[in-house]
From TrEMBL:
It comes from Bradyrhizobium campsiandrae. This is Uncharacterized protein.
Amino acid sequence: MRTRLVAWTLLTSALLAVAVWTVLGPPDRPAGSRLPLHDLTASVR
């Protein structure tokens, strides 16, 4: 019973992740919001 619950949860999470990935697309900057600021300061110098 517990194994089926864990398997069902993992399967549902994977399907939800694929659906969100399909709708939103892959993240452009996984490093966070500090990366654009760093690029901006590097391009100014």
